[in-house]
Structures are given as structure tokens and as C-alpha cells.
Design a protein that fits this description.
This is DUF6533 domain-containing protein. The protein is mainly alpha-helical and 242 residues long. The protein has helices spanning 2-24, 26-39, 44-68, 74-80, 83-106, 111-133, 168-171, 173-195, 204-232, 236-239, and strands at residues 138-141, 150-153. It is 73% helix and 3% strand. The chain has a two-stranded antiparallel sheet with strand order 1-2.
């Protein structure tokens, strides 16, 4: 019961922060759409913005539906439980694309860097799809007699073959892969900015780009480390909130 309450408190807190962020950024979003309309074209920056913003919204809605919905059966949970990790990986792919495009642009579209970024993107996303879906059966958790069951990932289910499923041995690797890719793009872009500073001193623009990249990386890494901690805990209830 305490674990379930903790998980739900964490989810409500994250939903509140996400909703607040969405509301306060609506004016900036509207200005972006107006500028695109005046230019009569949709830039790749705008497309990536729309994708990361609204795929993230879908991730929040779908993942929390599995916890707060009250009508799950084992059959409906089985149909549902692949949807949430699918959108989670799609969200990560968009985030990787944003960092990759940023790094590629900073390097003045260097062809070799572009090839390395593309290969890294394919390898990283392939590992992320694998670690999110490998050996993770769905299960309806009966948290108590007074609280309805909810759909989660069974981290200790015994398969038909008699093998004990232990997907937390691989699921946490997803977040490690994400952090490695993010760190790689940050290092490449930062090194290139510093090396190609023509004045010998960091201009305000270059400083802003470096600090922006560092801030984005720190925020993403903090969230990913938190998720790794959740997945490495022995408490299955907390693992399902990761």
C-alpha cells in the first residue's frame, strides 16, 4: 500500500509539473506557429518541436492511464501494456533527433560527423526498443481490496517454460543508453564550439549554446539517473513508475 501511494504521488507531481510547463509555454508556441505561417513553410525545427511536445503529452497520458484506470483485466492489460513503452521510445527518438540535428548544425554539417551521428542514433534506438520490450509480460496488480487493480509490467513472472522473468536486469540499460548518446552529442558539440571560436574568446552566442546544451544534458541525465535508481530497486511497485 505504501509503495502504491508513493508511486501515485510521484505521478501526480510529475503531471502537475508537466501541465504547468505546458500552460506557461503556450504563448511561445503560438508565436512559433505564427512565424511559420508568415514564412509559408514548416521548418524542421518546428516539426521537431511539435513532435517532442505532443509525443511527450501522449507519454504522460498513456503511462498514467495504466496506473489510475480502474477497469483493467488481464486481457485488456495485455493489449495495453505495449502502448506506453512504444510512446516512451518514440519520445526518446525525437529527443535524440533534436540533439543530433543540433550537433550536426554546430559542426557545419560535417559529413563524417553526420554519418557517426546517424549510426549512433540507429544503434541507440535499436537498443532502446530491445530493452523496453524484451521479456516483459503484463500483469494486473491487486494492490488491495479497496483499491482497483492497475496494469503494470510483471518483473517476477514465471513463464510457461519455467524460466523466471527478470526484465529489470535489462530495462534499466535503456536509461544508460540514453545517457551515453546524450553525453556523446554534448561532447562533440561543445568541443566543436570551443575549437572553432574565431575570436579566441567565447562570444555570448557560443556561451549561450554551451550552457544551453549543458543545462539540457543535466536535466535529462538527472531524470534518467532517477529512473535507473527506480529500476535497480527491489521494489516492483516503484519499478513500474519508471
Amino acid at each position: 500500500m505504501d509503495t502504491v501511494s508513493t508511486e501515485r504521488y510521484l505521478r501526480v507531481a510529475s503531471l502537475s509539473i508537466a501541465l504547468y510547463d505546458y500552460i506557461i509555454t503556450l504563448p511561445a508556441e503560438w508565436r512559433l506557429y505564427l512565424s511559420q505561417y508568415r514564412d509559408s513553410r514548416l521548418s524542421h525545427v518546428c516539426i521537431l518541436f511539435i513532435l517532442i511536445r505532443y509525443v511527450s503529452v501522449m507519454v504522460m497520458v498513456i503511462s498514467n492511464y495504466g496506473v489510475f484506470a480502474t477497469s483493467f483485466t488481464q486481457e485488456s492489460c495485455q493489449r495495453y501494456h505495449d502502448v506506453s513503452p512504444t510512446f516512451k521510445v518514440l519520445q526518446t527518438m525525437v529527443s535524440h533527433a533534436i540533439l543530433g540535428v543540433r550537433t550536426f548544425t554546430i559542426t557545419h554539417r560535417n559529413r563524417r560527423i553526420g554519418i557517426v551521428l546517424f549510426i549512433s542514433f540507429v544503434v541507440a534506438t535499436g537498443l532502446e526498443w530491445f530493452t523496453n520490450f524484451y521479456d516483459r509480460p503484463a500483469v494486473v496488480w491487486d494492490v488491495s481490496y479497496s483499491i482497483p487493480s492497475y496494469c503494470a509490467i510483471d518483473l517476477t513472472a514465471t513463464l510457461v517454460t519455467g524460466k523466471v522473468s527478470n526484465p529489470d536486469d535489462t530495462a534499466w540499460i535503456y536509461y544508460v543508453v540514453v545517457m551515453v548518446y546524450d553525453l556523446g552529442t554534448l561532447v562533440v558539440s561543445t568541443v566543436y564550439l570551443v575549437r572553432h571560436n574565431v575570436n579566441g574568446r567565447l562570444s555570448r552566442l557560443i556561451k549561450t549554446m554551451i550552457y544551453d546544451g549543458l543545462g539540457y544534458f543535466v536535466a535529462l541525465t538527472a531524470v534518467n539517473i532517477f529512473n535507473v535508481v527506480l529500476y535497480r530497486t527491489s521494489d516492483e511497485g516503484l519499478q513500474s513508475s519508471g
